[in-house]
Amino acid sequence: MAKIKFIEFSGKEHDVEIANGTSIMQAALDENVRGIVGDCGGSCSCATCHIYVDESWLDKIEVKSEMEEILLEEVCDPQDNSRLSCQIIVSDALDGMVLRVPEKQF
Amino acid sequence: MSESNATGEVYWDPYRPDINLDPYPYFKRLREQAPLYYNKEYDFYALSRFDDINKYFSDTTTFSSARSDIMEFIKEDDLEIPDGMFIWHDPPRHTSYRNIVTRVFTPRRMNELESKIRAYCARCLDPMIGETNFNFIDDFGAQLPGGVIGMLLGIPDEDRDIIRDRIDNSLRTESGKPMESSQSSYQGEGFEDYVEWRKNNPSNDLMTDLLNAEFTDPDGVKRKLTTEEVLIFINVIAGAGNETTSRLIGWTGKLLGDHPDQRRQIAKDLSLVPAAIEEILRCEPPGPSVARYVTKDVEIHGQIVPAGAVMQFILSSANRDESRFADGEKFNIHREGSPHITFGRGVHACLGAALARVEGRVGLEEMLKRFPDWELDMANAEMSASSTTRGWDSLPAFLR
Asked: How confident is the model at residue B184 (pLDDT cuts 50, 70, 90)?
């Protein structure tokens, strides 16, 4: 279980308790966090669940696959702290993580 | 909803023209009374609830695409699907081919096309300024998507209409009847000359990229696509990108014609356009249901769906499921909450979603800039029947 803060582009915040093993994309959709779309449902192929991870948490997340690297070059407004939220799986180690939703996914 | 439909046996099939005109009361009953529905007449199962489709649609080991995603084809005994027809492959074969085009249709690249799409819209719409009669399909929906795909592929403008008509006809069903699989062609006839020519005249277009792409094929061999595979890719892309987007433009005209108050809000504030396109895609998906081949017995809602069966995933029903979308039957561009499931789920989720969205968005903006007000001429509108899409073949309107 981890408590995670989502900050929408509008500034609206969601503090969500998420069970281990759940993807951040799924948790965001369940919580109606605006701006996460996730067309492909977490199969790392659509690039519509882009999210910014607060820097201090980046090394606690599993490293990117080759496909995620490719897709992250293709999102709107990519940054060094960009990730696809479907590829971030919640564990106790992520307790307290802060995530920011980009202005747009497409 | 007619009384007999409200009280009689729960029924749905994708062929009946009267159901196709307004399938939503039928879907509502499926969701409520037969969440796992079996149709005896055509021998298929159907899922209609959001949660079920969200859960099962991406399970490619149970619900396979390897016998296509069209019910009539899945049932063919001697169906042969050529290598490279990637929308009809399962992983890992699918992965190997789809990876070739992963970068092509991404949000960033599609948004880069925006100015070209805008210019193409102007070419379609400017000649209509001052006219009273406008047809959302003939004058716009039938023009824009083929133009954009042709632009991507590097096909000259004058040849695009011929290619579009050939593809659309290959997927059209006679009203009320299933599709004949023999009528469809996915081998890319009509593009051979361009591909041959493009081999010797490379350019900055998708056809050249496909000819040059190196990939690791399903047998682990690193190679380029064969000419046959390039033709199949082109045919998949052209086929998937034409009629569906034309339908999206038709539904945009219809839904905003039916809801002038919301249309006026959008015309006044174009920042509402992206949300409006998402709501149009939710309410009226151009591809309302998609079929899969069931590879093994699976229990759903206490009933066994046997291996070998056909499962229809009714995306357009899931999009109105009240347990997911409050007031799901209502068109509301200000809707908050869950995204729709129109582009599918899982590894087969629509590759061209970002392109469809940018065409829908730019198309609506350019429409509203010139024609903020219209009234539909429904007496002369025509809905079409197809095993893959649902929408308007003709949607005339009076411009105000």
From this structure: very low
